[in-house]
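Re-running Nicotinamidase/pyrazinamidase to confirm reproducibility after the cluster update. Everything else is unchanged from the original entry.
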Amino acid sequence: MPLQKDSIVKNCADSLVNILSSLEDLPILKLDGLEPQKTALVVVDMINAFAREGPLQSPRVNALIPAVAKLVRLCRSRGITVLSFADCHTTESPEYDAFPVHALTGTSECEIVDEIKEIGDYTLIHKNSTNGFLEESFQEWLIDNRQIENFIIVGDCTDICIQQFATSLKADFNRKNQRRLVAVPVDAVDTYDLGPHNGDLTHMMALYFMQESGVKLYSSVED
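Result of re-run:
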């Protein structure tokens, strides 16, 4: 069935307003309500390739750095585990069929941004796809850290790596009949603008789809 552009735009307008309204009054996630030894902060792709250099760099991702770095410091001060994913590909990556060449192994694009790297004290996992959940290193980490019940996910991009990781993680816990908090603070995730990829729209819709999948959305994280 062919897409009817005018009809779709008209019919979706009210839905977009409703979704935006639902994202306006989100609660604040309070760290003092979570046990540090059962909580992990997962930082996704806060690397130079998306924040500072290369064909996929975005000012929206760059603007996330202060909020994410602040949260990393806060979590480390509370003894909360920090895990950091970094996109890292070889020249043979099939991902380059869909995206420009980025985050090549051995280049500065793969590096965590300096503001977070300088804080340190995090577990680094390189990933060769948009979905870090699939990485063998993460699956091993998950097994070794069965005590973690609360996952706070920050970084980029909301509609790609964040959404895929968060919904995969939540679905896996559901499959195992395990109740776990998979949380995304809205002020610490974002995506990019590029051509038809409208950052505002894709960011909003990704948040909505995650919420529909059982991921808990929060306006921010506070001590």
